[in-house]
Write a structure and sequence with these properties.
This protein is an alpha/beta fold. The chain has 12 helices and 11 strands. It has 2 domains: 113 residues, Rossmann fold (3-Layer(aba) Sandwich); 176 residues, Rossmann fold (3-Layer(aba) Sandwich), CATH 3.40.50. Bound molecules: NADPH dihydro-nicotinamide-adenine-dinucleotide phosphate. NADPH dihydro-nicotinamide-adenine-dinucleotide phosphate binds next to helix 7. It comes from Hoeflea poritis.
């Protein structure tokens, strides 16, 4: 029997690529020219796409693959995929939830402590041979502070659990109030920022959240406020964030994600009161292997058993 043909649009973990090569005829296309060539030569035969967050699976690509059945993303965030259009065209979209939740939550807490206690700056101080001079005490602390989580989903909950263990109060804002948690629900993002000392974004990217964290939110957070982002850079108005950090509207920020990755604004790079990470919240071998396996399982699950493992909310499953 002929193997189904799939497009590898975005670099995958080597082990995942090997597994996919066993089960499928794969077309690897990482650059625009290569993608165009694959679409021209094999677009009609491609039934699956394996994508990664850095490759957009947009309207144009979906519509140019007329026999597409499934898009399997590497990552829980799938704002790189036009999931609504996929659903309209009966194309399944899958992501890799749960297997990365604890790793991302660990990173978020690490970033939070690094930012509040200025640990990157302290390390730079030591490496510069300054230990003999007394190190300035940090203005920031997590003692008696309230954490406001924007996006209390799988990852947000895991962060909340850890934050409580280190003595922080937790409150949150989602579009809907959760019935199974006791953390105070705050009905708007602006109120959340007013109500907390540290605002942490763990919400998805995409059009619904684009630019929501702007000047008004930083003003509400205030001059002793800390902003942490492990969600998506698109949720933040980065120009407003830079201004807020420069003029003291907020105290500091810890960022794992940016508006135009991998380009980080020079103004942020020059600041000492920010901690900047290169989108590494899930980036341990352990967790990336688990994500890769789930991506492969979604593709083989669909083509071998007719059932994807983790379809996203826009892909109703089971189909009626
Ligand atoms: P979930 O879907 O479990 O949680 C998302 C939460 O955000 C839900 O509680 C949802 O509640 C809330 N939310 C969604 N849209 C909005 C909105 N417009 N306004 C307010 N709240 C909103 O996802 P996960 O927790 O698994 O992942 C969250 C995100 O974290 C991912 O989408 C991804 O972007 C990011 N991420 C980043 C990583 C990194 O490397 N930095 C790694 C992994 C994930 P409700 O629907 O009620 O609004």
């Amino acid at each position: 029997m002929q193997k189904p043909e799939i497009l590898i649009a975005g670099r995958l973990m080597p082990a995942a690529l090997e597994s996919l090569k066993h089960a499928f005829t794969v077309h690897e296309a990482y650059e625009t020219d290569a993608l165009e060539a694959v679409i021209q030569a094999s677009g009609e035969r491609i039934r699956g796409v394996a994508s990664s967050p850095f490759r957009s699976v947009n309207r144009d690509l979906i519509l140019r693959l007329p026999n597409l059945e499934i898009i399997a993303n590497f990552g829980v965030g799938y704002d790189n995929i036009d999931a609504s259009l996929a659903a309209e065209n009966d194309v399944i979209v899958t992501n890799t939830p749960d297997v990365l939740t604890d790793e991302v939550a660990d990173t978020a807490i690490g970033l939070l402590i690094m930012t509040a206690r200025e640990l990157s700056a302290a390390e730079r101080w030591l490496r510069a041979g300054n230990w003999q001079k007394s190190y300035p005490l940090t203005r920031g602390t997590l003692r008696d502070k309230r954490l406001g989580i924007f996006g209390l989903g799988r990852i947000g909950r895991a962060i909340a659990h850890r934050a409580q263990a280190i003595g922080m109060e937790v409150c949150y804002h989602n579009r809907s109030r959760l019935r199974d948690v006791n953390y105070p629900y705050i009905s708007s993002l602006r109120e959340l920022a007013t109500h907390c000392d540290v605002l942490l974004c763990a919400a998805p990217g995409g059009e619904a959240t684009r630019g929501l964290i702007g000047p008004d939110i930083f003003e509400a957070l205030g001059p002793d406020g800390i902003f942490i982002n492990i969600g998506r850079g698109s949720t933040v108005d980065e120009t407003a964030l830079i201004k807020a950090l420069k003029d003291g509207t907020i105290m500091s920020a810890g960022l794992d994600v940016f508006e135009d990755e991998p380009n980080v604004p020079a103004e942020l790079l020059a600041m000492d009161h920010v901690v900047l990470l290169p989108h590494v919240a899930s980036a341990s071998q352990h967790t990336r292997n688990a994500m890769a396996q789930l991506q492969v399982d979604n593709l083989t699950g669909w083509f071998e058993k007719g059932a994807p493992v983790t379809p996203v909310a826009e892909t109703p499953w089971p189909r009626s």
